[in-house]
Structures are given as structure tokens and as C-alpha cells.
Amino acid sequence: MTDPWVALEPGTDLAEHVRALRRAHETFTEAGTVPHPVRPVVAASWRRSARAGVGPDGTARVELTDGDLDAYRAEHPLAPVMPLFRELLGSFAADGEHLLAVCDAHGRLLWVEGHPATRRRAARMNFVPGARWAESAVGTNAPGTAVAVGRAVQVFAAEHFVRRVHPWTCAAAPVHDPRTGQVLGAVDITGGDGLAHPHSLGLVQAVARAAESQLALLGPREAAAGTPELAALGRDEALFTVGGRRLRLSRRHSEIMVLLARHPEGLTGDELLCALYEDESVTPVTLRAELARLRRVLGPGLLASRPYRLTVPVGSDVAVVERRLETGAVAAAASAYAGPLLPASQAPAVVRLRQRLADGLRRALIVRRDPDLLADWAHAPWGEDDLEVWRALAAVRPSTAVRARLAALEAELAAPYVPVRDPAGSPSARAPVHARRATSLQRRRP
């Protein structure tokens, strides 16, 4: 095939190809082998889907509804380019009886628009806003596979992993953040066999590139809205966006900014000293020098003293997660959680906040009992040894892989821990990985 990401070569007998794909799909679901004529990109996706525990008779789950969905869409970085998507693809979708869909980086559909009759048909398989169409949830499909592999892809008929999606054809392309290269989501066209043409794949690719160009021109959304923003989750050095500038802060400056953003009323020097340093021998002079350096980094007018405070409101990703948890928007909170707060920080106040935020989200996920949300946490770097979450996941999705991982964690917990000591007699940081994990698990034990 000339382009492996295109579903059909010119001149292909459509009906015969559909029959061949259905036979191949049955062979894979029954025997686990992938025969001709399945494309390599589809075969790889089928295997990933099977490893994730997706069944061919499954269906998508709706995770975000009503106000929860509205709030998440309003804050999503693709919201500013929705008018562009509608301008370039809206008429094409409506006139051709197709659907325009946009998903986030987790495969959750945020917008589904287009021909009314087609929307009603798609709703019967939960192809609706708020539904999760990640590969790990419903197997091979264009938007889910596009965000999984970071490439534009076309999926035709029985190339879809779930049988109820076999009557459909879709083409999707990922949209990247023009500043970081991170996948923000994907733009998709879904409809009938008429989309099984190279032009539909080229179209969504062009629209995705246009969206990235517009995002680059718009600049950071936070700066455009006039509110400085602090991103500190999942990174040791926070990013501060203000006035169109993106500043990477040092670790100590990151800690100070996290604390000041949480205390708009300000903190005294003594309060900051206790919050930042475990060592009581650190003097106020050291702190004042650090704050003077931070003031130069931020620029004039942003950091005041007596008490130390930020002169303008500063939003943060920590506040977004907390706000969503407070309103019960668990799925939206999990989407905003990019990882532990300043994971390398040992500042006492930051450590407490990091633990409180993670524990609050973990408890909400366990209570929610959503298998996809639990799986996202369990497979993240910060959740791979989280025994409570793996137990909760095993209760709602007892697949072979999940049970095996849980058994391994239980065995590690039961194993005796003998710390390795260095020549000076202190516990070594080079203790066996399983021993360090067991210690971590004991701390989490209910």
C-alpha cells in the first residue's frame, strides 16, 4: 500500500474488502492472529486494544455530562479553535451526512456536530460528547488511535475493534500544542463508506495543521485572558505564564510561587521560612535573597513584601484540580492532574499539599469505581505501585493483566524488607527496587 495510514488503495473492491476485514477481525478475536489484508497500523492497534482488555462487543462509556462537560470544554486548550473547525469542516460534515468530532488527549469526545440523522445513529453507540473513545476503552477507532500514535489515521469498517462500529468509517488527525509539541486532542470526521478516500485523511490533516497555526498566533490562553497561570503538576520546575511570557522557574522559586498563589493575602517572612525549609538553621537573610532573585525573574510589580504576596491573582493547575474535586467533577479533575506537585520538592508545606492533592484524587477515583479512570491512574508513573488503586481496579476490571499486577504488588508487600547499607552504615539509596517499592506500599497500606 502506498500510504499505510490510508484505509483503501485506488481501485479496491469495497464490498469484497469489507468481507475480508470481517473475516480477519473474527480470526483475531478468536485466535489472536492478524491475517491479510489488515494494515500494520490497524494490526498494532488491535493488539494494543486486546492487551488493554477491550472486548469486541464493548461500548463507550460517557464520563462527562452536563455542567461537568461544559466546564471541561470551556477550559480545554482546543476551545479557541472550535470556530475554525466548524468553518473548515462544519459544512462538509452537514452536507455529506458526516460528523465533525473533537476529542481531548485522553480520547474523550468534547464536541460532536454535524448531520442530525447521523448524530442520532452515532448516539446509539455512545459517539456523543463526554464519551471516552480512547483505544484503551473501545479499541481501534480514528480519534482514539490518532491520539495514541500521534499520527493522522483513517479507520474503515471492520478495522474498528468493536463490532458495533463496523458500519462506520472515520479519519482523524492529532492537534499538537505549537509551543510544547504535546498532543492536545484530535479532530475527526466520521460517517459512512464515502469517507474511505485519501482526501478525507488529507482534509483532517490540513485542518489540524491550521488549528496548530492559529493556536501559535493566539499565544497562551492564560495570557490572552489576562490572568497569569502557574503550572506545577508533574514537573520539578514550574512554568509561569504572564504577559505573553513563559518563565521556567527554579525549584525554590517554584515552591515559593506555589505557596504565594495559594495565599493571595500574603505570608510573613517567618511563615515562608517554616513552609520552605526543614532546616531550622536557615536564616531570614537566605530567604530574602531568594525572594529578591525571584522578583528580578518575574519583573517589576508582581511580587510585594510585608507580607510577601503576589500583586495580581494567579491561577494554577493545582487550583483547577481542587476546584473540580470540590464540585464532584472527578473525571475532569483526573484529566487536569498531570502528576504529583513538584515531585522533587522537600519543602514541608509543598510536601503536605502534594500528598493532600494526590490522596484526595485517589480517594475520589476509588469511590467512583470507573475502570478507565482507575486504569489511567494505575498505569501512570505515580500509580504503578499504588496498591489500593490496583485493588479497586481489579474489583471492577478483573482482567488477567490486572490480576497479575495486583498479585505481584501483594507479593512485594509481603516480602521482608532488609535495607542495604552503605559503608558508613546508613541505608543505601541503591537498595533493590522491589525493596524500595515494598516500603512505599507499606506506607499506602489501608
From TrEMBL:
Q: Where is the composition biased (Basic residues)?
A: 433-446
Q: What is this protein called?
A: GAF domain-containing protein
**Which region is the signal sequence?**
none
Name one matching Pfam family: GAF
In its keyword annotation, does this UniProt entry include Calcium? no
Tell me the lineage of the source organism: Bacteria, Bacillati, Actinomycetota, Actinomycetes, Kitasatosporales
According to the record, the residues making up region (Disordered) are: 421-446
UniProt keyword annotations, A-Z:
DNA-binding, Transcription, Transcription regulation
All copies of the OmpR/PhoB-type domain together span 244-310
Q: Which domain of life is it from?
A: Bacteria
Keyword presence, Transcription: yes
Q: Which InterPro entries match?
A: GAF, GAF-like_dom_sf, OmpR/PhoB-type_DNA-bd, WH-like_DNA-bd_sf
